[in-house]
Amino acid sequence: MQEGGTIVTLIHLRRPNYPPHFYCKLNEFVFKGRLRLLYMLTRSYQWFVSAHSYINTGPMRVLVTGGSGLVGKAIEHVVLQEGGKLEGEEWIFLSTKDADLLDVGQTRAVFEKYRPTHVIHLAAKVGGLFLHMKENMHFLRDNLRINDNVLQTAHEMGVTKVLSCLSSCIFPDKTTYPIDETMIHNGQPHDSNFGYSYAKRMIDVQNRAYFQQFGRRYTAIIPTNVFGPYDNFNIENGHVLSALMNKTYKAKTEGTPVTVCGTGAPRRQFIYSLDLGRLIVWVLREYEEIAPIILSVNEEDEVSIKEAVEMIADALDFKGKIQFDTTLPDGQMKKTASNAKLRRYLPNFTFTPLQEAIKKTCDWFVANYDTART
Ligand code: NAP
Ligand code: GFB
């Protein structure tokens, strides 16, 4: 449990997106005595001092938007089944049934109802390559609106920390590799998902602005391609692994070949949703920067779509033919992301090996076929 006090942060005016070089929490007594001195010292060196009061009245009350989705369900598992929840904490997992976050009135009402101290903001319009290509406008507008409703309501209600979710697909298409956190705004995103990408990039812009103007410590994570139980296994609209699991299962049942879209050459870093859930709980508790952090497996764990479908075939014991429809698009050929920043914080974090995580997800899909999103 934290006491109330004042958070003082120094930001370099020429490099406002850099992590603060000085950051501390002072109780009110110390703070009042030192503030004038801090201002005098910093003005001549082009540092900006941000100071705001915080009052923490007790254990965290965490509101998870998008709590019914792939990532939300993984966090729920980590918190409720793996002992991630600390004594006295309250965790609330929202879905569209609780509030349509496109609607500002419903957003405010659900925040009023639960009065969170912390928010994990996952709710979004989400889909695989082929849905993005059809609906860039919806991806842009829906996500801009949901994100603004959630962030502004959190700010108005004095939420201590918001952790939002970006994606490695929002980085510039023409870039050098590996991509790191400083490169988000360096160029245009891939044409297939520009709507989603620009909407997500604005979260990072908003986080910086809330911090600079109001001292709010709102941050973001950047996961690579996620998969796991509770994914959307829809063949047309889902992401690649979940769509291919469903296709392969069907092909096995019907005795037909599996058709993979594109050449199979694009490469992806896949992260298992439960590993991501564990990392998100760590970010919520420990990560103090406003600048985002990439949550990804190592660069050498990137695999081609061809390698991934072979792992799925293995996991589902599919012995039939795997064919590639090269008339369909490949999308981004790669978006290799660096997890160096994550490794500086958590050098020993162990990711579930991909083949094992694919097997677990396939087993979950087969066992839950009647209720899974297909
Ligand atoms: P998901 O399984 O499709 O879940 C989406 C969640 O958002 C659901 O809980 C859904 O509620 C909720 N939602 C959607 N529209 C809403 C609205 N208007 N009002 C309230 N709630 C709404 O997605 P996910 O894969 O878990 O994605 C979670 C976050 O991770 C997203 O921000 C996404 O951009 C990001 N991300 C995902 C991936 C990936 O590969 N999946 C990769 C990088 C980043 P209902 O269940 O009621 O529909
Ligand atoms: O997961 P995905 O749809 O999106 O994967 P992205 C697309 C890649 O998988 C392309 C190939 O190379 C496709 O040609 N692929 C092969 C398939 N078969 C299939 C299939 O049956 N379904 C799908 N969907 N793809 C996403 C963004 O990009 O990155 C998301 O669109 C998200 O929004 C994610 O943020 C991280 O990896 O290309």
Automatic annotation (TrEMBL):
PANTHER family: GDP-L-FUCOSE SYNTHASE. Keywords: Isomerase, NADP, Oxidoreductase. It holds the Pfam family Epimerase. GO terms for biological process: 'de novo' GDP-L-fucose biosynthetic process. This is GDP-L-fucose synthase. CDD domains: GDP_FS_SDR_e. It is an enzyme of class 1 (oxidoreductase). Catalyzes the two-step NADP-dependent conversion of GDP-4-dehydro-6-deoxy-D-mannose to GDP-fucose, involving an epimerase and a reductase reaction. Pathway: Nucleotide-sugar biosynthesis; GDP-L-fucose biosynthesis via de novo pathway; GDP-L-fucose from GDP-alpha-D-mannose: step 2/2. GO terms for molecular function: GDP-L-fucose synthase activity; isomerase activity. Belongs to the NAD(P)-dependent epimerase/dehydratase family. Fucose synthase subfamily. Its EC number is 1.1.1.271. Residues 62-290 form the NAD-dependent epimerase/dehydratase domain. It comes from the Eukaryota.
